[in-house]
């Protein structure tokens, strides 16, 4: 592992990760006839689908995944898209082949996205610190080790090592194949690409589609992409929910294209939206559920609005809403009965239930895991909602989407009723994930505050004759009331994930990494190593390539892992322990005085105090870690 202490060293990784995320999918959706910013916004989901699906298929036919298979897969996908459009679709006859494929960027949209990118980088990079900084969250151990496994084996399949969505890991591992970065800094850069590139692009595309394409709204959307702490700041470190971070970051782009296709009714746009679905499912399936939720809410809100305006008879409105309700209830009840995996997901329970009012303040006021209400953000949400209700009623369904997310959050945070998990269980009944989802429509509401503020400012006599000044003040109020008022809070939230104040909340400090690196150099390549996961030793695989038995925190409760974890200290009398060690070629053990906070000592009781265990021989001590050779089997 090569240390990366400066972000400038990560520029090659940033470029490669961005290209792999955008280019394959963009070529596919352009071939399908999807144009404009929506094509770029949805391309990451399509790219991930190409990578994840084709990597799994490659493993099935015995092909090692790499850049050449990615190139071939992209060419095939583009060819299939062109063939589909030739058979069942129709391109815009007024566009030539070159313009049809490459498009023409709109300067105001480019500037708005650039604003979002710069704001995200300016707020995220200083809080993380160094590109090789480890976020101190237990899930990071699993994700980093899986990326390393993909790189070491060339098997990027969804089933490696066990069935788990492979979109996030396959994208990162594919991008790291040229050797632009090691696993840890490469993954940190990947999350930066999601938060600072994919998210602003999707936000600008969605806001322009919902509120119109005026420059004021466009620039406001770029600024609004950095308005929330719940997303992307929170998901960059909490959990750590990296696949959910990716899924949420890509949702605005897919939603923008879905709404565009529903209005234009162009087959190519629907095909582009459909092409994004496999990728979203292989990142985090709840992204599909979120799109279904948003689609149903949009449909219901549009039907109610049509009834209020007299465009549709109320009996037709009631009929359609009744059909949606029946289908929704049946789907919610039937889904966990059909899918055992979903039923397991819905069974998650969280401590710390709060009253409904407290939950409402947390999600609307942004007071999630922080002590104060984000008053500036709250003001913008109110202004934006008011503007949509009074002046931009075509975007009322976006308000309904945001309300739906708020309701889901309150249910997850406050309800103890068993039935609520049927609805919130798709997000593990986790209010943090639902708060991040609320940021998707929330960005549109914040962007809508700019025309609302401009209208208010133009009532002031000095600004009445200066519309440009009023517009500039209105749009700059967004960063002033969010980043300006709460910049310190935002920094502390993310800084706390990467630099916790207590030693027990640190998985591996830089000093501990150095100690384990030196000990790893003593272990012959391929030899297995065992140690309590809570001492950080599972990261030896991700960081140094050492063949560790445990690659997640905590120890699994079944199989050889629990046999070794509870019986290692009695190997002289436990043939089953020796058999398990032999199956995994475990010849070394790591002990340490360091213990991470997520500690399950009953699962690793046999791996504590190795100095007193018969059957091991001390080899070396470095810092808080001691390496032993297994001699008892």
UniProtKB/TrEMBL annotation:
Membrane-spanning intervals of the chain: 12-32, 39-59, 65-88, 109-129, 189-207, 216-235, 289-309, 321-343, 368-389, 401-428, 434-456, 468-485
Matches recorded under Pfam families: DUF6541
Keyword check for Transmembrane: yes
Keywords for this protein: Membrane, Transmembrane, Transmembrane helix
InterPro entries: DUF6541 (IPR046671)
Full protein name: 4-amino-4-deoxy-L-arabinose transferase-like glycosyltransferase
Origin superkingdom: Bacteria
Classification lineage: Bacteria, Bacillati, Actinomycetota, Actinomycetes, Micrococcales
């Amino acid at each position: 592992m090569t240390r990366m202490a400066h972000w400038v060293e990560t520029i090659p990784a940033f470029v490669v990760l961005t290209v792999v995320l955008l280019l394959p999918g963009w070529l596919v959706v352009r071939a399908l006839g999807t144009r404009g910013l929506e094509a770029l916004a949805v391309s990451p989901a399509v790219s991930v689908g190409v990578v994840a699906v084709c990597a799994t298929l490659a493993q099935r036919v015995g092909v090692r995944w790499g850049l050449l298979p990615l190139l071939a897969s992209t060419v095939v996908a583009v060819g299939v898209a062109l063939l589909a459009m030739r058979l069942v679709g129709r391109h815009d006859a007024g566009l030539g082949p070159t313009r049809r494929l490459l498009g023409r960027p709109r300067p105001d949209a480019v500037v708005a996205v650039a604003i979002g990118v710069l704001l995200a980088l300016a707020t995220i990079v200083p809080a993380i610190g160094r590109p090789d900084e480890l976020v101190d969250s237990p899930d990071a151990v699993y994700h980093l080790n899986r990326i390393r496994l993909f790189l070491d084996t060339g098997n990027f399949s969804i089933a490696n090592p066990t069935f788990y969505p492979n979109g996030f890991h396959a994208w990162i591992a594919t991008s790291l194949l040229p050797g632009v970065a090691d696993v840890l800094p490469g993954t940190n850069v990947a999350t930066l690409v999601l938060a600072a590139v994919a998210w602003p692009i999707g936000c600008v595309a969605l806001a322009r589609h919902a509120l119109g394409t005026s420059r004021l709204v466009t620039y406001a959307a770029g600024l609004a992409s950095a308005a929330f702490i719940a997303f992307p700041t929170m998901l960059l470190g909490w959990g750590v929910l990296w696949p959910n971070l990716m899924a949420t970051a890509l949702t605005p782009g897919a939603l923008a294209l879905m709404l565009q296709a529903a209005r234009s009714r162009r087959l190519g746009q629907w095909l582009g939206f459909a092409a994004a679905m496999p990728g979203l499912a292989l990142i985090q399936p709840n992204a599909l559920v979120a799109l279904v939720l948003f689609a149903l809410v949009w449909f219901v809100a549009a039907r109610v609005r049509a009834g209020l305006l007299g465009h549709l008879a109320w009996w037709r409105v009631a009929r359609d809403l009744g059909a949606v309700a029946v289908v929704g209830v049946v789907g919610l009840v039937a889904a966990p009965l059909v899918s055992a995996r979903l039923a397991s997901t819905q069974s998650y329970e969280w401590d710390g239930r709060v009253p409904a009012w407290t939950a409402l303040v947390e999600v609307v006021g942004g007071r999630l895991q922080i002590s104060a209400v984000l008053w500036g953000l709250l003001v913008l949400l109110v202004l934006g909602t008011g503007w949509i209700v009074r002046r931009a009623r075509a975007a009322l369904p976006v308000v309904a989407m945001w309300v739906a997310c708020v309701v889901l959050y309150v249910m997850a945070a406050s309800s103890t009723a068993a039935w609520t998990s049927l609805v919130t269980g798709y997000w593990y009944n986790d209010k943090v994930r639902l708060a991040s989802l609320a940021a998707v429509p929330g960005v549109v509401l914040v962007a809508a505050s700019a025309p609302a503020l401009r209208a208010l400012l133009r009532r002031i006599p000095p600004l009445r004759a200066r519309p440009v000044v009023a517009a500039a003040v209105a749009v700059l109020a967004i960063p002033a009331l969010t980043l300006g008022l709460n910049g310190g809070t935002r920094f502390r939230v993310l800084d706390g994930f990467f630099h916790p104040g207590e030693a027990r909340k640190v998985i591996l400090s830089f000093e501990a990494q150095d100690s384990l690196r030196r000990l790893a150099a003593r272990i012959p390549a391929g030899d297995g190593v065992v140690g309590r996961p809570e001492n950080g030793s599972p990261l030896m695989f991700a960081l140094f390539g050492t063949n560790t038995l445990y690659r997640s925190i905590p120890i699994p409760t079944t199989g050889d892992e629990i046999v070794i974890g509870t019986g290692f200290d009695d190997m002289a009398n436990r043939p089953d322990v020796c058999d398990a060690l032999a199956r995994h070629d475990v010849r070394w053990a790591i002990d340490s005085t360091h213990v991470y906070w997520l500690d399950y000592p009953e699962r690793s009781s046999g791996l504590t105090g190795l100095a007193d265990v018969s059957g091991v021989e001390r080899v070396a001590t470095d810092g808080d870690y001691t390496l032993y050779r297994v001699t008892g089997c």
